[in-house]
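so i finally got all the pieces together for this one. its two components total, 928 residues if u count the protein bits. some of the lines might not be protein, just check the labels. i wanna see the whole assembly predicted at once instead of chain by chain like last time, that was a mess tbh
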Amino acid sequence: MVIENPLPHFAEWFPAAAASWLLVVGVLIVAALVLGCLVSVLRYGPRLGFTVALGTAVSGVVDLVCMSPRRVAALSWLAVKEAIRRRVILVFVLFVVILLFAGWFLDVGSSEPAKLYLSFVLTATTYLVLLLALFLSAFSLPTDVKSRTIQTVVTKPVRPSEIVLGRMLGFTIVGTALLLLMSVVSYFFVTRGVSHTHEVLAENLRPAGPAVDGRQPLSGTTESSQGHRHRLFVDAAGKGVIESEFGHWHEIQVGGTSDKPSFEVGGPEGMFQARVPIYGKLRFRSREGVDIDRGINVGDEWFYRSFIQGGSVAAAIWTFSNIRESQFPDGLPVEMNIEVFRTYKGNIEKGVLGSLSLRNPRTGLIVEVKVFESKDFTPLFIFVPRKITEFSGADVISSKRETPDKGVEFSPPQNLLDRRLAERKEFDLFNDLVADGEVEVWLRCLEPSQYFGAGQPDLWLHAADASFEVNFFKGYFGIWLQMVLVIAFGVTFSTFLSGPVAMLATVGAMIGGFFSDFLTRLSQHAVLGGGPFEAIIRLVRQENLMTELEPGLRTTAAQMADRVAEAGLWVIAHILPPFTEFNYADWVAYGFDITWDPWIVVPALRALAFLVPVFVAGCFFLKTREVAQ
Amino acid sequence: MQSSEVVIETRSLSKVYRDFWGRQKVRALKALDLEIRRGEIFGLLGPNGSGKTTTVKLVLGLLFPTSGQALVFGRDATDVKKNERIGYLPEESYLYRFLNAEETLEFYGRLFDMPAPLRRQRIADLIEMVGLGWAKRRQLREYSKGMTRRIGLAQALINDPELIVLDEPTTGLDPIGCREMKDLILRLRDEGKTILMCSHLLADVQDVCDRIGILYQGELQELGRVDSLLKVRDTTEIRATGLSEACQAEIRQVIERHGGQVLSIGNPTTTLEELFLHIIRESEAHPGRRVRGGAGNGH
């Protein structure tokens, strides 16, 4: 699974984030006050204008502080009623219809059907719920203004803040109920959709060794179901094991007599996971044996993964911290999913050879625990036992790093290396390879001219398994956060825009939010091809992104305009919520636990950080608007 | 009942409607100075587009004045606290058509932060008062115009307001409904409430208002008590019953002798509204009998 922007833990993130939020909100408040004063002065003249603006600001703050829960509840109830009247349930019906038809098209015979099903339901739910939130929120207030029903509401002692909050809460209640319904239906759709069993026929099994007490060990394959079959073994004691295939296995009960055995295969196991990963910090070792931050670029425009050359000393090195014996009493379960880049085809049926080693960062002892074959993006699971007796090599090496100020540094220093450490026949994982909870995992490619590519989250320690059901609903929490943000933006835009325009503005905010990363890079001049104006010239003149534009007045003007536009883009990128951050579909589909800290807590607080100013802006827009005009 | 306490006060209240670009479109109200006192029924009169509804909306805070000020209970019209003591019946009952009568009143009651028992009692009383008990569970979309008007009135009274603002209160009502509305307005005045109504139906205003203001093209043209405004000082009306033809001729001669001019002497006619009401009342009292209207029926 790709994690392009790893989040820091709450404790690291919060102080700086809170300070930055307060600063941005402070700047926005000052900007709003200045703008409000200007408009007011233009309308009422200098003295009265300033008084009016100040009075509006003060009464606006009073509106926010003195909200009545009963009135907010009444307005929320009205919004719920309105949503029901607008046949919101049809969205659920549409969702069920989509699921019914999806059953025809989702291929259960694919290599990872659970991932396919989970991605599908989460994506379909996201689109439907966000569309619903968009329509409900953007059209509600403008419809009230148009039908003038708002006039009978605002002539009651209702504050604008209560109207805005009531709308937001009401639509959130409706969306939440719908989301809950969809999640329950989706859960059953997914679990039932991929559920299957296999038949095992005695005549397809072959003897697998000598008989013990008249019972014959057997091996063979199950019958095919959902496009795959499993290898199975039955030992002389009658205990059967079905091997993992397509990301799952089955329990098997063996009954009957030794002459006429019968087999009963259970449902798929391990298909729906919520693995709790421990991620390490990634660095690379170059072909020259020097530690570097990034590996080789094989020409991929996406810089997420770096590559190491096969048949050299190059390695991708993950350093894991806080590894405790109590957490991994039996050994280290290492899982990885790496990219294989071939410079020649070779035997395409076979994977490229690689090795996995563990190194003690204190002593320098490195033990090559496994040599494996790797195919492109095929998940690999390697269990490193507590007592390492089988290994393909051991050595003691220093890592070497070049720093501009201190020159070349070795860790540990070469004169302190104890070569005898590598001469032993057995190693203890925690006594020999883990130092103060720290251990390094080295990945090497063993075939010359072939490459392995890795990003930091591509190799992890499988610490535990969390509940898939809880993880599934956490995935829906991400959709819920997106929905609440869309509702907040929709309601706020609708306080001063007509329905269709408010909808377009909300869609714009969503699109901007989805691409806020790109906008930030664009504003930092980090995108090839320059800013928007330079891009227009390139489009018109059909010039590629790499060449410099012809010097001249036009180019200078475009680049200067881009500097101005970049400032605007920077502001836009920072006032729109990063919607992609709330999308947990990959976590659920790839079977990773969405940990509370940081993946739930931090995005939830970030969403709140956007919701509060958006709500306050909505209140002020409604307060300063003549609802009867 | 009328006291000296000023409930509504406008000071040079003006309103200019502008377009999107800020250009002046209409000057809807020009420097209106007005005082409405507690316990009176004040009528704003004027043809369509004269600024009646604009005045009402400015007083309610639905519009912001271009210049001048509107004060209600001594507070600025944009202050929401004033709304706790106001009931407003708009020109057309702008209500949520997907709610039924009970839900509508429940919703508006909750907006006044009324405790539940008081709210329930008030809702029951108001539904009884406007005679919609039989339709209280029906959605407003199924209501006739008259029924919508009644439930609109009920929502305006949900908070037992001290000031009631009625915009064209009799629009859409049948003659019985009109009469009931006017009776209710008078009853509310008798209970000590202040009423501001605007209408272009002169008869309505004449029947109920204590004072009126006449607006034309955004300017106040006339302001005063209805009885004194309507009194035609140089015309005398004689109304009597049982006069013979000779007696009538003698009265004519007396008027001519004193230099007066007889405009008409005859049997006075009732208003159509009065006649219609009489027929309806008679029909209800004696079902099946044809009612004869006109001068011989005791009017």
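The two ends of chain A are 53 Å apart (CA to CA).
Residues 38 and 49 of chain A are 8 Å apart (CA to CA).
anyway lmk what u think
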